[in-house]
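Protein folds are increasingly written down as discrete tokens. With that in mind, we are printing a sequence and the tokens encoding its fold.
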Amino acid sequence: MIRNDAIVEIKQGKLYYQDKMVFQDLNLSIKKQEFVSIIGASGCGKTTLLNAIGGFVSLDEGEIRRNGQKVLAPTKDCVMVFQDFEQLFPWMTLLENVCFPLGLQGAQKRTKEKKEVLAKETIERVQLKGWENHYPFQLSGGMKQRGAIARALVTKPEMLLMDEPFGSLDMQTKSQLQDMLLSLWQTTRTTIVFVTHDVREALKLSQRIVVMKEGRIQKEIPNPSREIKEEKVEEIMAML
């Protein structure tokens, strides 16, 4: 269903890789300020769909529009966080890493001092205050992911794409980062599209769950209460 208040509209999306269908006949709308999870088994096309929304891959048929404009390439108002812990530049401190995107926006717009103030505020929001001058090798996996999220959010993008960012973390750290991300979203209302294979994670975080299987959307499930109920988990698992 296509909605007038959508930030993203995908119509009849179809994509192949080496003559193999990745996804087809895909129609999806994502509202502004919405938190949506895309869930499915490995190889179902969810990560490729995320890359297509970000402009990193192009559809073979159909179209993707963001704010009414056809998506042809990555843009600064849509950023991505990956599962890999090594997203931060190893030769930069945490503060320098978070400042980096601000320089890409144009050095003339902000002084170095203003960039650092904004970066420090963002670092504090991801609960890494006091670690500004540490290098990535001095940070744990969870701290690196917090740093990657800070770097993504420092420019105040309109949309954040997340590809299983907590998938390699232990359960306690994963839960802490889920809580942090939900708090950040409630504060910033940045549109988030979150790819995961973890049903409970999707139920905890998102307002709506898009279930994919074999390159198609099986079902869109409203999730306003964010309650993790076993019958809901089993219902979604049966679709995968």
